[in-house]
Model the fold of this input.
Amino acid sequence: GGSFWEVAGKVLLLLFPTFVLVAGVWGTMISLYTIPFRLGHTARVLTALLMSWWDAARMAWFYWVGMARFLIVFVGWIWGLLKLGVGLIWRTVKSLVLSPFALLDSSSRHPGVPWLAFTLLIFWSMIEATIFTFTLRPTMSELLADLTGYTVNPLALVVILWFFLFIIIGGSFACIQVLNEAIQTRAFGQIVAMVGVEITVALFEVLFLYRELIDAITPWLAQQGIELGVVGTLGLAFLGWTGVRGMTWFLFGRFGTPALLAILGRKAMEGQQGAARPLAGADLEFWRGPINALKAEHEWFKKEAQHLVELLTLPSLQLVAAGFNFLVVVVAGKPHFTLPFRSLDQVLASTPFITTGKHHIAEGGA
Done:
């Protein structure tokens, strides 16, 4: 009439000991009845019965202690896994919070490729390309429809236009970098050429990109009573281009653009060491570490799993072996298993046949 867990607990604690008790009583009674037929081996049979009862009592105690030990170890495993999970989550969060500061500290201590400026340059080019894509999309859609006579797919137009603008904006930063290098080296011919190129780039972006942005905000200016003509619109667009390019250039463009050009040209940046190709041994070490760690974790889990299996199965198997010894005493006059089992390997090994020798006892049921 108890609950499920109460019944399960009683079965777990009493089933195997009860089996040993029943097997011991029946084995003892039958062995005592056969003593008149074993007058020459009476002492050995009685000694075997006494030792079997001693083993049965010990194995019953070991069974209960083993169950308690298994529960303690299992709870310890659960607690350890919880601590491991919480520790991993904490280290992950801590790493996410502290990694930007560690990156800044490492960059200041060991100057190298300005990855932060390079990332900001790429990110800004993507943002600017996205803004101008939605600004130019209606105009480009009408233009392509007039040229081809077909309505262009809006999604394909947005994708193509975005990549086109992304390259154009990145090229604008590259032109400023080349002009800056020409000024630093005082190459007057290149300076004149790059000034002409930069003026052309500025006119292109002002006419086709920033003018569209100014046109988009012209209705708001008109509401404020400001009327812009062609010169005013182009002048405001040019000022917008100059301000945006100037702020982004002095913030991260002058640091990220050389890195972008070096990556595209597969060249080492000026002042950087380690341009040589890394050795093959470094690649091997890069893979060998995680593989060795995985192998070590596999061996550790395999060992711990075997340990848990031993804690769970050995107490039960020892009780079964103790009950089986009573039945063997009836037939052979001596127990078959030497108890307790030392490890699970003794149980997993093959069981030898019972011999008729006077001193053979199977070691742990091996």
